[in-house]
Design brief:
By secondary structure, the protein is α/β, with parallel strands linked by helices. Helices cover about 45% and strands about 15% of the residues. It starts with a helix and ends with a helix.
Protein backbone atom coordinates (compact mmCIF):
# COMPACT_ATOMS: atom_id res chain seq x y z
CA UNK A 1 0.00 0.00 0.00
CA UNK A 2 2.84 2.38 0.83
CA UNK A 3 4.44 1.71 -2.57
CA UNK A 4 1.13 2.29 -4.37
CA UNK A 5 0.57 5.59 -2.57
CA UNK A 6 4.11 6.68 -3.42
CA UNK A 7 3.57 5.88 -7.11
CA UNK A 8 0.34 7.89 -7.07
CA UNK A 9 2.01 10.78 -5.23
CA UNK A 10 -0.38 10.62 -2.29
CA UNK A 11 0.21 9.99 1.38
CA UNK A 12 -1.04 6.80 3.03
CA UNK A 13 -2.82 8.89 5.68
CA UNK A 14 -4.60 10.86 2.93
CA UNK A 15 -5.68 7.61 1.27
CA UNK A 16 -7.12 6.25 4.50
CA UNK A 17 -8.94 9.49 5.15
CA UNK A 18 -10.47 9.18 1.69
CA UNK A 19 -11.59 5.62 2.47
CA UNK A 20 -13.46 6.86 5.52
CA UNK A 21 -14.93 9.93 3.73
CA UNK A 22 -14.80 9.61 -0.11
CA UNK A 23 -16.65 12.85 -0.77
CA UNK A 24 -14.72 15.05 1.63
CA UNK A 25 -15.93 18.36 3.00
CA UNK A 26 -16.10 20.00 -0.44
CA UNK A 27 -17.89 17.04 -1.98
CA UNK A 28 -20.50 16.96 0.78
CA UNK A 29 -21.06 20.69 0.31
CA UNK A 30 -21.52 20.16 -3.41
CA UNK A 31 -24.22 17.58 -2.68
CA UNK A 32 -25.96 20.07 -0.39
CA UNK A 33 -25.77 22.84 -3.00
CA UNK A 34 -27.11 20.85 -5.94
CA UNK A 35 -30.80 20.75 -4.89
CA UNK A 36 -30.65 24.45 -4.01
CA UNK A 37 -29.22 25.31 -7.43
CA UNK A 38 -31.78 23.03 -9.09
CA UNK A 39 -34.63 24.88 -7.33
CA UNK A 40 -33.36 28.31 -8.42
CA UNK A 41 -32.91 27.09 -11.99
CA UNK A 42 -36.39 25.57 -12.18
CA UNK A 43 -37.97 28.63 -10.51
CA UNK A 44 -36.54 30.66 -13.39
CA UNK A 45 -38.40 28.39 -15.85
CA UNK A 46 -35.00 26.99 -16.94
CA UNK A 47 -33.98 30.46 -18.13
CA UNK A 48 -31.08 31.40 -15.83
CA UNK A 49 -27.49 30.55 -16.60
CA UNK A 50 -24.81 30.38 -13.92
CA UNK A 51 -24.39 34.19 -13.46
CA UNK A 52 -28.06 34.76 -12.63
CA UNK A 53 -28.34 31.56 -10.60
CA UNK A 54 -25.39 32.77 -8.53
CA UNK A 55 -26.97 36.22 -8.19
CA UNK A 56 -30.21 34.67 -6.89
CA UNK A 57 -28.28 32.49 -4.43
CA UNK A 58 -26.48 35.58 -3.18
CA UNK A 59 -29.84 37.32 -2.69
CA UNK A 60 -30.90 34.29 -0.65
CA UNK A 61 -27.87 34.73 1.60
CA UNK A 62 -25.68 32.02 0.10
CA UNK A 63 -22.08 32.88 -0.85
CA UNK A 64 -20.74 30.79 -3.75
CA UNK A 65 -18.46 31.43 -6.72
CA UNK A 66 -19.83 31.56 -10.26
CA UNK A 67 -17.35 28.87 -11.35
CA UNK A 68 -18.68 26.50 -8.71
CA UNK A 69 -22.26 27.19 -9.75
CA UNK A 70 -21.32 26.61 -13.40
CA UNK A 71 -19.54 23.34 -12.54
CA UNK A 72 -22.45 21.99 -10.50
CA UNK A 73 -24.99 23.02 -13.14
CA UNK A 74 -22.89 21.19 -15.73
CA UNK A 75 -22.75 18.09 -13.56
CA UNK A 76 -26.55 18.17 -13.17
CA UNK A 77 -27.14 18.82 -16.86
CA UNK A 78 -28.79 22.18 -16.20
CA UNK A 79 -28.51 24.38 -19.26
CA UNK A 80 -30.30 27.59 -20.11
CA UNK A 81 -32.87 27.25 -22.88
CA UNK A 82 -31.31 27.31 -26.35
CA UNK A 83 -31.53 30.64 -28.16
CA UNK A 84 -32.87 31.33 -31.62
CA UNK A 85 -32.75 34.50 -33.67
CA UNK A 86 -35.75 36.32 -35.13
CA UNK A 87 -35.99 38.81 -37.95
CA UNK A 88 -36.98 42.46 -37.56
CA UNK A 89 -40.45 43.80 -38.41
CA UNK A 90 -39.67 47.47 -39.06
CA UNK A 91 -41.22 49.00 -42.17
CA UNK A 92 -39.51 52.35 -42.70
CA UNK A 93 -40.63 52.76 -46.32
CA UNK A 94 -43.10 55.57 -45.92
CA UNK A 95 -43.48 59.28 -46.59
CA UNK A 96 -44.08 60.38 -43.00
CA UNK A 97 -41.64 62.80 -41.32
CA UNK A 98 -38.91 61.14 -39.26
CA UNK A 99 -37.81 62.55 -35.90
CA UNK A 100 -34.21 63.19 -34.91
CA UNK A 101 -32.38 60.68 -32.74
CA UNK A 102 -32.46 62.75 -29.54
CA UNK A 103 -31.82 59.73 -27.33
CA UNK A 104 -28.49 58.99 -29.02
CA UNK A 105 -28.06 55.72 -27.09
CA UNK A 106 -28.27 57.40 -23.67
CA UNK A 107 -29.99 54.39 -22.15
CA UNK A 108 -29.61 55.28 -18.45
CA UNK A 109 -31.94 58.13 -17.43
CA UNK A 110 -31.60 59.36 -13.85
CA UNK A 111 -35.20 58.68 -12.85
CA UNK A 112 -38.40 57.10 -14.11
CA UNK A 113 -40.68 58.76 -16.66
CA UNK A 114 -37.83 60.61 -18.35
CA UNK A 115 -37.41 58.27 -21.32
CA UNK A 116 -39.76 55.62 -22.66
CA UNK A 117 -38.97 53.36 -25.59
CA UNK A 118 -41.21 51.23 -27.78
CA UNK A 119 -41.08 48.68 -30.56
CA UNK A 120 -43.11 45.95 -32.26
CA UNK A 121 -42.34 42.27 -32.78
CA UNK A 122 -44.22 39.16 -33.88
CA UNK A 123 -44.95 35.70 -32.48
CA UNK A 124 -45.91 32.74 -34.70
CA UNK A 125 -49.04 30.69 -33.90
CA UNK A 126 -50.98 28.06 -35.84
CA UNK A 127 -53.60 30.73 -36.51
CA UNK A 128 -51.02 33.16 -37.95
CA UNK A 129 -48.86 35.97 -36.58
CA UNK A 130 -49.55 37.68 -33.28
CA UNK A 131 -47.99 41.15 -33.11
CA UNK A 132 -46.80 42.61 -29.81
CA UNK A 133 -46.11 46.29 -29.16
CA UNK A 134 -44.45 47.30 -25.89
CA UNK A 135 -43.37 50.45 -24.06
CA UNK A 136 -40.48 50.28 -21.58
CA UNK A 137 -39.30 52.85 -19.07
CA UNK A 138 -35.55 52.92 -19.69
CA UNK A 139 -34.88 53.86 -16.06
CA UNK A 140 -35.89 50.45 -14.73
CA UNK A 141 -36.39 48.42 -17.94
CA UNK A 142 -39.94 47.82 -16.76
CA UNK A 143 -42.62 47.07 -19.34
CA UNK A 144 -45.17 49.77 -18.55
CA UNK A 145 -47.49 49.32 -21.52
CA UNK A 146 -48.22 46.74 -24.18
CA UNK A 147 -50.76 45.71 -26.80
CA UNK A 148 -51.29 42.62 -28.97
CA UNK A 149 -53.13 42.17 -32.27
CA UNK A 150 -53.35 39.96 -35.34
CA UNK A 151 -52.56 43.03 -37.46
CA UNK A 152 -49.51 45.28 -37.33
CA UNK A 153 -51.28 48.61 -37.66
CA UNK A 154 -50.75 52.03 -36.11
CA UNK A 155 -53.50 51.29 -33.57
CA UNK A 156 -51.29 48.55 -32.11
CA UNK A 157 -48.60 51.08 -31.15
CA UNK A 158 -51.23 53.60 -30.05
CA UNK A 159 -52.82 51.13 -27.62
CA UNK A 160 -49.43 50.25 -26.12
CA UNK A 161 -48.71 53.95 -25.60
CA UNK A 162 -52.13 54.52 -24.06
CA UNK A 163 -51.55 51.58 -21.72
CA UNK A 164 -48.27 53.17 -20.59
CA UNK A 165 -49.95 56.55 -20.09
CA UNK A 166 -52.64 54.95 -17.93
CA UNK A 167 -50.03 53.13 -15.82
CA UNK A 168 -47.79 56.17 -15.44
CA UNK A 169 -48.17 59.95 -15.46
CA UNK A 170 -45.99 61.17 -18.33
CA UNK A 171 -44.19 64.43 -17.73
CA UNK A 172 -44.39 67.21 -20.29
CA UNK A 173 -41.21 67.14 -22.33
CA UNK A 174 -40.33 63.52 -21.55
CA UNK A 175 -38.97 61.48 -24.46
CA UNK A 176 -40.41 58.52 -26.37
CA UNK A 177 -37.90 56.66 -28.52
CA UNK A 178 -38.67 54.14 -31.26
CA UNK A 179 -37.49 53.01 -34.67
CA UNK A 180 -38.72 54.91 -37.72
CA UNK A 181 -41.39 52.36 -38.62
CA UNK A 182 -44.62 53.58 -40.19
CA UNK A 183 -46.61 52.83 -37.02
CA UNK A 184 -44.55 55.35 -35.02
CA UNK A 185 -44.07 57.92 -37.78
CA UNK A 186 -47.78 58.05 -38.66
CA UNK A 187 -49.75 61.22 -38.04
CA UNK A 188 -52.08 59.48 -35.57
CA UNK A 189 -49.27 58.26 -33.34
CA UNK A 190 -47.45 61.56 -33.51
CA UNK A 191 -50.63 63.38 -32.44
CA UNK A 192 -50.94 61.05 -29.47
CA UNK A 193 -47.41 61.96 -28.40
CA UNK A 194 -48.08 65.66 -28.87
CA UNK A 195 -51.33 65.49 -26.87
CA UNK A 196 -49.35 64.17 -23.89
CA UNK A 197 -46.49 66.64 -24.32
CA UNK A 198 -44.04 63.86 -25.21
CA UNK A 199 -40.98 64.51 -27.38
CA UNK A 200 -40.42 62.01 -30.19
CA UNK A 201 -37.00 60.47 -30.87
CA UNK A 202 -36.27 57.89 -33.58
CA UNK A 203 -33.41 55.54 -34.39
CA UNK A 204 -31.19 56.11 -37.36
CA UNK A 205 -32.11 54.18 -40.50
CA UNK A 206 -31.27 50.49 -40.26
CA UNK A 207 -29.59 50.84 -36.87
CA UNK A 208 -31.14 48.46 -34.33
CA UNK A 209 -28.55 49.43 -31.69
CA UNK A 210 -30.25 52.82 -31.31
CA UNK A 211 -33.16 51.01 -29.65
CA UNK A 212 -31.10 48.29 -28.00
CA UNK A 213 -33.02 48.11 -24.70
CA UNK A 214 -36.32 47.14 -26.30
CA UNK A 215 -34.53 44.82 -28.73
CA UNK A 216 -32.95 43.16 -25.70
CA UNK A 217 -36.37 42.70 -24.09
CA UNK A 218 -37.73 41.05 -27.24
CA UNK A 219 -34.69 38.76 -27.36
CA UNK A 220 -35.26 37.75 -23.74
CA UNK A 221 -38.96 37.13 -24.35
CA UNK A 222 -38.33 34.93 -27.37
CA UNK A 223 -35.16 33.16 -26.30
CA UNK A 224 -36.21 32.52 -22.72
CA UNK A 225 -39.93 32.02 -23.05
CA UNK A 226 -41.36 31.51 -26.53
CA UNK A 227 -39.05 29.68 -28.91
CA UNK A 228 -39.60 26.22 -27.38
CA UNK A 229 -43.39 26.63 -27.32
CA UNK A 230 -45.89 25.94 -30.09
CA UNK A 231 -49.10 27.96 -29.83
CA UNK A 232 -52.26 26.60 -31.40
CA UNK A 233 -54.09 29.90 -31.12
CA UNK A 234 -53.32 33.57 -30.71
CA UNK A 235 -55.21 33.42 -27.42
CA UNK A 236 -52.70 30.89 -26.05
CA UNK A 237 -49.83 33.13 -27.11
CA UNK A 238 -51.46 36.19 -25.51
CA UNK A 239 -51.82 34.40 -22.19
CA UNK A 240 -48.22 33.16 -22.26
CA UNK A 241 -46.85 36.63 -23.06
CA UNK A 242 -48.93 38.14 -20.26
CA UNK A 243 -47.51 35.56 -17.83
CA UNK A 244 -43.96 36.43 -18.89
CA UNK A 245 -44.36 40.20 -18.62
CA UNK A 246 -46.41 40.44 -15.44
CA UNK A 247 -45.67 37.13 -13.76
CA UNK A 248 -41.95 36.92 -14.37
CA UNK A 249 -40.16 39.74 -16.22
CA UNK A 250 -41.38 42.82 -14.31
CA UNK A 251 -41.48 41.15 -10.90
CA UNK A 252 -38.77 38.51 -10.77
CA UNK A 253 -36.33 38.52 -13.69
CA UNK A 254 -32.91 39.66 -12.51
CA UNK A 255 -31.20 42.32 -14.67
CA UNK A 256 -27.43 42.63 -14.64
CA UNK A 257 -27.80 46.33 -15.57
CA UNK A 258 -29.95 46.84 -12.46
CA UNK A 259 -27.51 45.14 -10.10
CA UNK A 260 -29.35 41.83 -10.49
CA UNK A 261 -32.70 43.21 -9.40
CA UNK A 262 -36.06 42.98 -11.11
CA UNK A 263 -37.58 46.16 -12.61
CA UNK A 264 -40.21 46.49 -9.87
CA UNK A 265 -37.69 45.74 -7.12
CA UNK A 266 -35.29 48.32 -8.59
CA UNK A 267 -37.96 51.04 -8.70
CA UNK A 268 -39.04 50.25 -5.14
CA UNK A 269 -35.48 50.33 -3.86
CA UNK A 270 -34.64 53.61 -5.59
CA UNK A 271 -37.86 55.25 -4.34
CA UNK A 272 -37.17 54.37 -0.69
Amino acid sequence: MARLCKNLCISPSGYYRWLKDPLGVRGRRDQELKPIIWRVFMDSKRIYGSPRVRAQLKRDGLTISRKRVARLMHEMGLRSIIKRKYKATTNSRHNHPVAKNYLNRQFYPKRENLVWAGDITYIPTNEGWLYLSVVLDLYSRKVIGWSMSSRMKTQLAQRALQSAVENRIPEVGMMFHSDRGVQYASGDFQRDLANHGITCSMSRKGNCWDNAVVESFFNSLKQEWLHHRQFKTRSEARQSIFEYIEGFYNRHRLHSTLGYKSPIEYETMMAS
